[in-house]
Design goal:
mainly beta; 5-stranded antiparallel sheet; disordered N terminus; KIB1-4_b-propeller
Length: 385
């Protein structure tokens, strides 16, 4: 009689061997393999990743793997993407808002969809805010009788939002800013959403200046108009501002050159970066971080083995070399056409939809593959968690 099979043998492979197997897989097989067991998942998190693109076209989205040069066509639950705005992404998930101002999370591979609470539910906060639906426009945000109009078009250009999803247990945190003074957030931890039951599934509202924000490890970093970084703790029931543990509190960012756009990002080690898209300079992007010893902001010459997507909020571990010729490697910044003021606007030439900036050489590799399918394109990082 044969002996029972050792089901634990595969989970005890040496990490270096398992990592080499993972790195030889295509992205979809990599994503399936990392869910086999907790050990495989832990090892997969040490493997380099690289961004894909979502090219949105009507009710279909095209997922493009730029290194494998493969196109995956997905019908994402019949959603007409001409009637939604994609606000943020994290791993295989994207945060979207539709024309009725209903928010959803969508997994671009499994098509799983999570509906977030309606804005008409009561808001959690220290002031009497409420949303009042208006079928002609969207919503009115009311405070002490004063109404602020909120429409779907407000999210067309103002996409200050973050998304975090735990790929193992399904926990998630969503936050988005509107009118540059209000941050709305929602948190699901454990078997149910934070609160005392279905009646308490509601958005939290935080009143603060917000030009941009980034999230990592239960902390929301918010860049204000007076050039400071505030930190909000998300470990508890409601987000609370952290004052004593904020190393950036007394160190405003003073950059004298012309800024086209500014975004925050947090490295894997937890350092906050200020990423700038510049106007009229040879160096189109640059990065700063705070030197805590001298209390001043210094330029970052290298991201080491990491790269970032402009506006994504975090850095990712990346391949050390450019495998495909598209510039996707460590020490690079992926961006979209409206993140960068290109020289094309001076020559009236059509500007490519997206590109990759090399920090070491200050050069841009433009990505033109599939750009003719749609003007709606976004970067995302499959498997990131």
């Amino acid at each position: 009689m044969s002996s029972p099979r050792d089901d634990n043998g595969w989970s005890k492979l040496y990490p270096d061997l398992l990592r080499s197997i993972f790195e030889s897989l295509g992205c979809l097989d990599f994503h399936r393999a990392r869910t086999v067991c907790s050990n495989w998942y832990a090892v997969s998190r040490t493997c380099p990743l690289y961004p894909w693109r979502i090219v949105i076209r009507g009710k279909n989205s095209v997922l493009f793997d730029p290194i494998q040069d493969k196109i995956y066509t997905k019908n994402l639950l019949g959603i007409d993407f001409s009637k939604i705005h994609c606000l943020a992404s994290y791993g295989n998930w994207i945060l979207i808002v539709d024309t009725r101002l209903d928010f959803h999370l969508l997994n671009v591979f499994t098509r799983e969809r999570i509906n977030l609470p309606s804005l008409e539910s009561l808001l959690r906060g220290d002031r009497p805010f409420r949303f009042i639906r208006n079928d002609d426009f969207g919503y009115f945000l009311e405070l002490y009788g004063t109404k602020f109009l909120l429409t779907w078009n407000d999210f067309r250009f103002e996409k200050t939002a973050i998304l975090w999803v735990n790929g193992r247990n399904g926990d998630y945190i969503v936050a988005w800013a509107i009118k540059q003074f209000y941050i709305f957030s929602y948190k699901k931890i454990g078997n149910d959403d934070v609160g005392d039951g279905d009646d308490d599934k509601r958005w939290s509202i935080t009143c603060t200046q917000c030009e941009d924000m980034a999230y990592k490890d239960n902390k929301l970093y918010v860049y204000t108009f007076d050039h400071y970084i505030n930190i909000f703790d998300f470990s508890g029931y409601c987000p609370k501002e952290t004052m004593e543990e904020n190393p950036y509190l007394n160190h405003p960012f003073r950059f004298v050159d012309t800024i086209y756009k500014l975004r925050l990002a947090v490295t894997r080690a937890g350092e906050v970066l200020i990423v700038l898209s510049l106007v009229g300079l040879d160096k189109k992007f640059c990065i700063y971080k705070l030197n805590l010893k001298i209390g001043d902001w210094e330029i970052v010459e290298s991201l080491g083995d990491e790269m970032l997507i402009f506006g994504h909020g975090v850095t990712i571990r990346a391949p050390g070399k450019d495998i495909s010729g598209g510039g996707l490697k460590s020490d690079s910044i992926c961006f979209l056409y409206d993140d960068h003021l290109s020289d094309h606007h001076l020559t009236m030439k059509t500007q490519p939809v997206c590109g990759v900036f090399d920090l070491a050489t200050s050069t841009i590799t433009w990505h033109t593959r599939l750009e003719d399918l749609s003007s709606k394109i976004c970067w995302f990082v499959p498997g990131y968690a």
